[in-house]
Amino acid sequence: MTPHTPLHRAASGFALVEALITVMVLTIALGVALTGFDNLSDTSDGAGLMADTNLNLRSALNVMTRDLLSAGRDIPVGGIGIPSGDGALPLVRPSADGTALTFEAGATTLDSVTPGNALGPDIEGTPTDIISLLMADTSLALDQWPLASVAADGSAVTVDARTPIDDDATGITPGDLVMFTTADGSTLQLVTSREGQTIYFDAGDPMTLNQRGASQGTILQLRSDGTFPPMTATRVLLISYYLDGTDPHRPLLMRRVNFRPDRAIGVAIENLQVTFDLVDGVTNPVNVATPEAPHTADQIRKANLYLAGRSHREWRRSRQVLRS
């Protein structure tokens, strides 16, 4: 018989080389998976930061748009008369704390929209704008009845009892701006105190508005033959927007009503630029930073707003803030 030798197959498991290759492949696969996960996490982080930034910008823009749409409400065409002429001082303009801005020297009226090209702080090397808006305050029907009386020197007025002004929510308080109107024109004073239905306008107010010694534009110029004709009063709002760059890493978009404490409506907003489209019936210029003669602020019909913001922290991937 021919001897037969059986075939034997090794059954000792993976060889060392095979095990090393398997470990290497698994390591590469795990590294690829972790890298993909890390990239996905970074992408999600960046998307979240941009979403927060854009939401912040949209919220701020909505507030500004609402006020711009109300600018000029029940304000006389051509603006409200203000102290001017001999002895008049420029009016203080609401702005960031620590600044000392005034409205244009020599101005005879306060317009519904007052531009402020490059009057804001420089942020990241860019001069920013401010803007001031004037409108009637409809929360108090102060003009429903003529005033009951006006002090001979214009320092106080008494409001008709049918219009209570002592309500905690909507009543007259120090710091309010009141427009006085007669058939001959209008002027503006700032409330310094109130007793019952009588409102007082002492000199030395924060806006330097109660300058009854000026030769033009005061309540005294509304007199006729030394006496005041029937006069109505309207509370108005002077709303100003500007940036506060006190913290250069966290600039704020501020909204200030009259001279009350300002309030941040946008965080990490680093640029505010405003231009205007004018209607003059001839050239109708657009994107004007400041109306200049022969154009005036009365011809403003559209405001173009540019806001730029940054993320509240750095993006993990780039170690830099994201901008929108």
Task: Summarize this structure briefly.
By secondary structure, this protein is α+β, with helices and mostly antiparallel strands.
Q: What's the number of extended β-strand segments?
A: 17
Identify low-pLDDT runs.
Answer: none
Shape: elongated
N to C succession of SSEs: HEEEEEEEEEEEEEEEEE
Top keywords for this entry?
single chain; about 325 residues; alpha+beta; 7-stranded antiparallel β-sheet; 1 helix
Report on this structure.
By secondary structure, the chain is α+β, with helices and mostly antiparallel strands. Helices cover 17% and strands 27% of the residues. It contains one helix and 17 strands. The strands form five sheets. Strands 3, 6, 9, 10, 13, 14 and 15 form a seven-stranded antiparallel sheet that branches. The protein has a four-stranded antiparallel sheet with strand order 7-8-12-11, with no helix packed on it. Strand 7 (149-150) and strand 8 (156-158) form a beta hairpin. It is elongated. The model has no long low-confidence stretch (mean pLDDT 88).
Layout of helices and strands:
Elements: H1 16-70, E1 80-81, E2 109-110, E3 113-116, E4 122-123, E5 126-127, E6 130-136, E7 149-150, E8 156-158, E9 177-182, E10 185-190, E11 193-195, E12 198-200, E13 232-244, E14 252-257, E15 263-267, E16 269-278, E17 300-309
Antiparallel strand pairs: 1-2, 3-6, 4-5, 6-13, 7-8, 8-12, 9-10, 9-13, 11-12, 13-14, 14-15, 16-17
